[in-house]
Specification:
The structure is a homodimer. The first copy, chain A, is α+β, with helices and mostly antiparallel strands. Chain A has 3 domains: 263 residues, 2-Layer Sandwich (BirA Bifunctional Protein, domain 2); 108 residues, Rossmann fold; 81 residues, C-terminal domain of ProRS (Translation Initiation Factor IF3, 2-Layer Sandwich). Chain A is built from 14 helices and 23 strands. In chain A, the strands form 5 sheets. The first copy, chain A, has a 5-stranded mixed barrel with strand order 9-10-11-23-22. In chain A, strands 16-15-17-18-19 form a 5-stranded mixed β-sheet, sandwiched between helices. In chain A, helix 2 packs across helix 6. Chain A is globular and about 85 Å long. The interface between A and B is large, with 52 and 51 residues.
Chain lengths: 491, 491
C-alpha cells in the first residue's frame, strides 16, 4: 500500500483565494513554474475540459452561421497603427518581435493581443458587395498581453486561451442583432451547458473596448465577490471599416462602410468560473459533459482472492463497456486504499464514481456515487448507461440551480450611496442602484464609488427593460437617475 | 442570373505547380496576401478540414495513452541553449521577442520552432519515479520558423500547423516501441482514414533532427515527384534527459535518465498531400470524412412555377434532414445555373452532390453524384442516409486505391548509378538502390547523388526487413551494400 492520501478541505467561501490557488495546482489543472513570468503550462486535467468547452462554443457559433479561420499569430506594427484609439488601448500591452535569427526585421511584429487589425485588412479584400455580407468568422487561439498587474492562472496572464469572432454587416441594425445573438450563444453555452449564470451588461463608455462604439459583456460572480468578465461583444460601428477601408456595394450600387461586431468568449476565464463556482470545500466539481474523467471506477477489495478476481474482472468489464459507449472513464487499480482513491478523485472533480465490491458483483449492480450531492445509490448493471446519462444531466441541473440561487442571493438593490458603502464593506455582492449615466458624464460618479468602496460600475443590463422611478436620483451626484447601474468588485 | 461560371481545368500531373498554386487560392483554402512574408490566413474551406484532421489525430493519440497539454508559445533563450546540437539546428530559424510595450525584456524569448526545450524542463519537475512513466503528452499548435527558402502555402511557411507528442520512457526498448506505435498511428490516420499512402523511413544520420539519436519519418509522394515528409519521430535517447536533468528512480531505487521520443505529424503538409494526391484536373476531391461540405444539394429548375416550388421545398427538406443527421451540407439556392454550380462545387472538392429536379420529386428519389468517379445514380429518398454513408466509404476506398497504385507504379529498383541518373532525368519516382550506409560514412555517396540528379537519399525502410544480395555493391562507391536506400526528389 502506498501511503499517499490526498485530502483537500479548504473553506471555499471563506478563504477563496487560498482555495483557488491550491486547487488549480493540487488538482493538476496547470503548472505555473514555467520560466517566463505570466506564461503557464496547461496540463491534461484542464486541457481535456478546455477542448470540450471549445467544441461546445465552436458548435454554437457554427450553428449560427460562423465559420472557422486561423490568422497569423503576428501582426505588423503598421496594422495596429491604423485605428488610433485601438493602438492607444493596446500599446502598453504588446510583445514585439524584432529579430529573426541574427537579423533585425524590417518591420516590428506584434504578438496578437487581439486580432481586429489582422482580420480587417483581409476583410477589405474579401468584401465587395452586399452578397458577401454578413461575413461571420471566428478563430480559437491564444492571445498575448504584457500584463503589468499581478498575473493569476486562468484569470489574468500574458498568454491566454480565447475565441474571437469577427462579424461584418451591411447595417447597424443587423450588427445590433448580432449583439443579441452573441448574448444567446453565451446563454446557451455558459448557462445551459456549463451551469454558469451571468448578467449581460452594456458597459459604461469609460470602460469600453478601445476602438468600439459600445461594449457589451457577460459577468459572472466569483466566490470572493469579484465579477469575472467571461465574454464580451463590441459594436465597432464603422470605426474599423473606415480605418481599413472595408466597403461594399449595396443593392442600389452605392458604396458603403460595413458595420462590425466582435465577440470574445474568454475560455480561460470560463474555466476559472467553472471551477470556482461549482467547486466545494472538497475540491473541484466538473459538469459531466466537460469532465476530463467523467466516471472513475474503484474496486472494493475483498477478503478472498477468488472474490477479488471477480471484482477486478467486473471493474474491467464495466470500464471497457463504458469506454465503448463514448464515456471518459478511469479505472483506478492503483495500490491506494479505496478511501484514498475517493478523496483523490473527488478533489479532482470527477462527477460520477462507480464502486464495485463483492456485494455488487454478486447482486449484479454497481454503487454509483455523485460528486455534487455526495450521495450513493445502487444501479443494476444493465441500466448503467441510461442511469449515467440521467445522473449527468441531474448533476448539471443541480450545479446550475445552486449557482443561480447563489447569484440571486448576491444581487441586491441599494437606494443611497451610504447604503452601498455599508453593503460593500464585506466586498461582496452585486448592487443595483439608480445612477445618472453610463455615458462619459457618469464617470466622476463611478470614480467616487471606486474610491469609497473599491467597487466598479459595470453598466446597465442589456436585453432587460428596467428603469428607476421617474423621480429617482443618482445615488452619487443626485442628478436624475435614468438608469439602474450595477456595482460590484471586479478583477 | 449571375454570369459567374467557375471552371477549373489544369492538368495536375503535367503542370503540378500551376495546379497547386491555383487551386489553393481558387478553392479558397488559404489567402497569402497577409502583409507578413511567409504567414498566411487559413480560410474556412481549409480550417473545417483541418479541424477534422486534428480530431482524427488527437483521437488516435489519446486512444494510445497520450494526453493533451498546451505549453507557452514562447521559449526563453536559455532553454534553447541547453542542448547544443539542437540550438545549432534551429538558431538560424528563430524569431525573437525582445520588447514588451516600450521596455526591453530581461531575457529574449523565442517563438517556439518546436517545443522540446519548453516541455523538458517541466518533465524534469514532473518525473520522479518509474511510476510516473511512461509520460505521453501532445499539443496541437502552430510553430514558427524563419524560413529563408521560398515559402509555399501548406508546404513551407514561417508559421504552420502541427501536432507534437513528447514521450518519456524508462528504457530504450520502450522508446523504440513508441517509434513503432507512431508508425501505427500514422498508418491509421493517413493511410486508412485519409487515403494517403506513405513509406516510413529511418533517415540517414546526416539528415536527422538536431539533438536526436535517430529520426524516422513518413514520406508521401507528391504529383511533381517530390517526397513530402508528413510525419516524423525522433528517438532522442538520453540526450535531452541529460541536458534538462530528467531522471527517475527505477524499481530498484536507482536513479536513471529517461529515454525520449517525439512525434510530429505535420498537419499543414498532410493537407498539402491530401489535396495534391486526391485532386484531379477539375480541382479538389476531399475524402468524405474531412470535407468542409460533404454534400451539396442543387435544385434543378423546373419550367412551371408550381413544380419549382415543389423542387425547392424538397431541397430544403433533404438539407434539413441530412443536417439533423450530422452531415455537413450546403444547399446552393444561388441564382447561378446548375452547370455553374456543378463546376464550382466540383472544383472545391465536395465529395457528394444531390441533384433534385421535378423528375426526382415525382419519383421520390434523388440523383446522387460522386466527385471522384464523376458518376450519377438514383437513390430512393428513404435510403438516403444509408447510401450516403456507403458512398462516403466507397469514395475513400477508391481514393486510397488510386493513390496506392500510383505510389507503387512510381517505386522502382535501380542497379547502378547510371540507371539512377537516367531514371531521374524526369525528376520523378522513388528509386530503391543498393547503398553503402546511412551512417555518416555514407554521406559522400548521397552528396554525389544529389549533385548528379538533384535527388536525396531518404533512408532505409523502417519495419520492413529487406536487404540486397550479400555480394551487392553500393551504386555510388562500390563498397559492400548492406542496405537498400530510397532515393527521390524532396521538398
Amino acid at each position: 500500500m502506498l501511503k499517499e492520501k490526498v485530502t483537500f478541505n479548504v473553506p471555499k467561501e471563506k478563504k477563496f483565494s487560498e482555495w483557488y490557488n491550491r486547487i488549480i495546482r493540487e488538482a493538476d489543472l496547470i503548472d505555473d513554474r514555467y520560466n517566463v513570468k505570466g506564461f503557464i503550462v496547461h496540463k491534461p486535467w484542464s486541457m481535456i475540459a478546455f477542448k470540450e468547452i471549445y467544441r461546445m462554443y465552436e458548435d454554437a457559433l457554427e450553428r449560427r452561421g460562423h465559420k472557422p479561420v486561423l490568422f497569423p499569430t503576428v501582426i505588423p506594427e503598421e496594422n495596429l497603427r491604423r485605428e488610433e484609439e485601438h493602438l492607444e488601448g493596446f500599446k502598453a500591452e504588446v510583445f514585439w518581435i524584432t529579430h529573426a535569427a541574427d537579423r533585425r526585421l524590417e518591420k516590428r511584429l506584434a504578438l496578437r493581443p487581439t486580432s481586429e487589425t489582422a482580420f480587417y485588412q483581409m476583410y477589405a479584400l474579401w468584401i465587395r458587395s452586399f452578397s458577401d455580407l454578413p461575413l461571420k468568422l471566428y478563430q480559437s487561439c491564444t492571445v498575448f498581453r504584457y500584463e503589468t498587474k499581478a498575473t493569476k492562472p486562468l484569470l489574468r496572464g500574458r498568454e491566454f486561451l480565447w475565441i474571437e469572432a469577427h462579424d461584418a454587416f451591411s447595417s447597424q441594425e443587423e450588427a445590433m442583432k448580432q449583439v443579441e445573438e452573441d448574448m444567446e450563444i453565451t446563454e446557451e453555452v455558459l448557462h445551459k451547458k456549463l451551469g454558469i449564470p451571468f448578467i449581460f451588461f452594456q458597459r459604461p463608455q469609460w470602460d469600453k473596448f478601445k476602438g468600439a462604439i459600445h461594449t457589451y459583456a457577460a459577468d459572472c460572480l466569483m466566490p470572493d465577490g469579484n465579477l469575472n468578465q467571461i465574454a464580451s461583444t463590441h459594436y465597432l460601428g464603422e470605426n474599423f471599416a473606415k480605418a481599413f477601408g472595408i466597403q461594399f456595394l449595396d443593392r442600389e450600387g452605392k458604396r458603403k462602410y460595413v458595420h462590425q461586431t466582435c465577440y470574445g468568449p474568454g475560455i480561460w476565464r470560463i474555466m476559472a468560473a467553472l471551477i470556482s463556482i461549482h467547486g466545494d470545500n472538497n475540491g473541484l466539481i466538473f459538469p459531466f459533459s466537460v469532465a476530463p474523467v467523467q466516471i472513475v471506477i474503484i474496486p472494493i477489495t475483498a477478503t478472498s482472492e477468488e472474490t477479488s478476481k471477480d471484482v477486478k474482472s467486473q471493474c474491467h468489464a464495466v470500464a471497457t463497456r463504458l469506454k465503448e459507449n463514448g464515456f471518459r472513464v478511469e479505472l483506478d487499480m492503483s495500490e491506494k486504499t479505496p478511501g484514498a482513491k475517493y478523496y483523490y478523485w473527488e478533489m479532482r472533480g470527477v462527477p460520477l464514481r462507480i464502486e464495485i465490491g463483492p456485494i455488487e458483483v454478486k447482486g449484479g449492480y454497481v454503487t454509483l456515487f455523485r460528486r455534487d450531492t455526495r450521495t450513493r445509490r445502487q444501479v443494476p448493471i444493465q441500466q448503467l448507461e441510461a442511469e449515467i446519462k440521467k445522473e449527468g444531466e441531474a448533476i448539471l441541473e443541480n450545479l446550475r440551480e445552486r449557482a443561480e440561487k447563489w447569484l440571486q442571493q448576491s444581487l441586491k438593490e441599494v437606494k443611497s450611496f451610504e447604503e452601498l458603502r455599508d453593503a460593500m464593506e464585506e466586498h461582496f455582492g452585486i448592487f443595483k442602484a439608480p445612477f445618472c449615466s453610463i455615458e462619459m458624464d457618469g464617470e466622476p460618479c463611478a470614480q467616487r464609488i471606486r474610491e469609497a468602496t473599491g467597487a466598479e460600475v459595470r453598466g446597465v443590463r442589456f436585453g432587460v427593460d428596467e428603469k428607476p422611478d421617474p423621480d429617482a436620483k443618482c445615488i452619487v451626484c443626485g442628478r436624475r437617475a435614468g438608469i439602474f447601474a450595477y456595482i460590484a468588485m471586479a478583477y
